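Homework help board

Subject: predicted structure for assignment chain

Our instructor gave us this sequence and asked us to write out the predicted structure in token form, then describe one feature. I got the tokens but I'm not sure how to describe them. Can anyone check?
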Amino acid sequence: QVQLVESGGGLVHPGGSLRLSCAASGSRFSINVMGWYRQAPGKERELVALITSRDTTTYADSVKGRFTISRGDAKNTVDLQMNSLKPEDTAVYSCYVVDYLAHWGQGTQVTVSP
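My token output:
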């Protein structure tokens, strides 16, 4: 059973920064993709950023230039550095990991407010 432990959410003022982290454990297979999705109230879940086992990255247009995704040396952790945060970044951010199957974390709240 794959377990994902997320950390780093919280409340920040516009223009501030937060760093989200996710650690995956329990997988019997190689992890191919790790990333983050988010869901704001009343909206559908959307991709934020992904990173593959070859360190290829994908970003939503709305976060390009502000967010940076990276994997740890052990390849079972993924971080999301979020800079220049905006109120529209407020959402529940969920870690996403793909080995043989797709796995989701519980989610961590990010609130950007004056």
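Reply (TA_rk): Your tokens look well-formed. For the description, you could write something like this. The chain has a mean pLDDT of 95. That's the kind of observation they're looking for.
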